[in-house]
Amino acid sequence: MTNTLKRIDPRRPFTLTAQGLRRITLGAVGVADAGAAALSGARHPAHQEQPKPRRTTATPQHVLLVAAHADRGALDEHARQTLAGAALIADASTEVVLLVFGEFSGDAAALGADKLIELPMFDRRTYAPTDELNALAACVAAYAPAHVLLPDNATGDGELGRRYAAAVNASVATHVVEIDAGHVSTYIRANTALASRRLPEVVLLAPNAVEPNLPFVGAGERIAWRFDREARDTAAHPLIRDLGIDEIDAAQVSLEEADFIVSAGNGVRDVPAFERLAATLGAAIGASRVAVDDGRFTRDKQIGATGKTVEASVYIAFGISGAVQHLQGIKDCRHVIAVNLDASAPIAKRANLTVIADAEATIVALNEAAAAARGARATSTALLQPGKLAEGVLA
Length: 395
Description:
The radius of gyration is 25 Å and the shape is globular. It folds into 2 domains: about 60-230, HUPs (Rossmann fold, 3-Layer(aba) Sandwich); about 255-375, 3-Layer(aba) Sandwich (Rossmann fold). It has 11 helices and 16 strands. The chain is an alpha/beta fold. A hairpin with a 2-residue loop joins β1 and β2.
């Protein structure tokens, strides 16, 4: 009895082919009739994912509170690391409470949280530090945590942690690179030495200090907890006023800060068509080293170990094979889409979705689809204008 099905990297769950979207499975139990095995969908016991145990089922006596902002319903890698850090240092009588600013649709239990408090009224695009500080303080008052942990980032969490520590005169450690149940450490002397101290009341964790993949799960209980922003806004003239967000052309955004990037490799020769697609999608432009060395793109567009490291939510690679240097530059991207004729290219192993097609033909098709969508939208808008509706109906 032999297994005739190939094992595919599970990090690449889908492949888009000319025949449509195909789901990739990990394999099946080998039987004499391979066709029957494929139809039955039976899987080898070794490939079945075993459920993880609960971290603790004891009655909680203490609390660790983790606070973080959500982005489009999910926590970023840094926030997941911070939550994992709290779960790893918690003992059997300590529960981990996750306070999320914004909507959260993820699996809190899988991330290590025992309780989840969601505050959907807070949008990451809106700057409301006073309201967020009041919400955090109210949550601390309700749960009396022994320690409060936040990601030490530049997108709101680090500032919130510092504001809270200053407001309540709490002990705080920032840029923490090492943590356990008794102490924290941070780099000093130009990162040549470590300074350690006892675990403070507020811990701001540096990125990549904790491995977020946990061997256990939390209880994941959602708590209905209401925070009334209006009732707590006692200042007639707040000290901080949100001036909103200034929208700029995606081409002006640095690659390190871009949230959506389309990148060209050796398979892209029609640069103007590629740039039109980037402008249509509102994406920043990147390139592989081969495309840069070939003179098609400037050096500041190069992504990789010898170029720039990016952290985009969406990264689309057109005609990039995926050398190890390039993969290193996109290791922190959330969703990677690869368009390549070679299904076995290294970029396909990293990609969440692989489109097996010619890069330039795909770019042309996307530009045509975008033009058609713009035309349909313009027609719909014209028909809805005063004086145009009746004319459109009569026609």
